[in-house]
Amino acid sequence: MSKLVTIYGGAGFVGRYIAQCMAKEGWRVRVATRRPNEAMFVNQYGTVGQVEAVLCNIRDENSVRSVMKGADAVVNCVGLLNEVGANTFEAVQHDGAGRIAQISAEEKVAQLVHFSAIGADPDSDSDYARTKGLGEADVLAGFPTAVILRPSVIFGAEDQFFNKFAKMTRFGPVLALVGGHTKFQPVSVDDVALAAVQGILGHATGTYELGGPDVKTLHELADEMLATIGRRRLVLNLPFWVGSIIGGAFDFAQMATLGLFSNGILTRDQVRNLRNDNMVSEGAQTLADLKIVPVATASVLPEYLWCYRPSGQYSSIKDSAKNLKV
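Now predict its structure.
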């Protein structure tokens, strides 16, 4: 019988790419998600019955254990950008990570791949980065041979980075940014998935920081996005103190509406994170150590940002028509 991998958060942005890769490797794939009815699309990644979505909440020990039974490898892709209800940074990125690692050891899983983030630090003033750091520590305490992957901002068709800023261009002539001078090293979701596959197959050890070939400021990435979608906007860099006020207002709106409004725009914790550069550290293990050549944003963004162009898929045709001689 073929080997089995359980991917926690396997229906999410990164997890679905790992699921596809492992299906191509001939593995059976168990996609653990809180809403399996909304994750049925993963079934098409392999042959009939090869990939299945199963119910799991990583806050519950029995739930985590039940979907791990019989697994040869485990991947934890679960993470948050914003706390909503019981899904807090502490519950998911710290306690949840440690729970998966501990149960993986008890179930004698051969390989564990855990997703963290560049900037993970138990002493950080950002709850996101702090719980990522604490989660790493608990994972290694429970499963010392775990492979830790720390990506920079990840880009791809379903990303919440370039898509988010591209949507914002539809609402006016100004694109306001907090942390415009903060540096990032965007990495392709395909490259991140390949790195996870190396860990699952036992070809990686230790901690890896994943970044693409280019380091750019947030302002420069916004300019690249605007050039890709063919829109002209004034990119305005807001001071961090202004960002904190705006983020605080959105946080309050989420709290006051009891979660009916989910702050997917800007949180105060994200503003704290934006004070620090998000790029691969000197001396860290990288994609190069996994023999993966990273893809640049320039070769991928046009493939999925075309829908934000003024004429959508017809923009290139209209531009070409301008050159016709009548």
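The mean pLDDT is 95.
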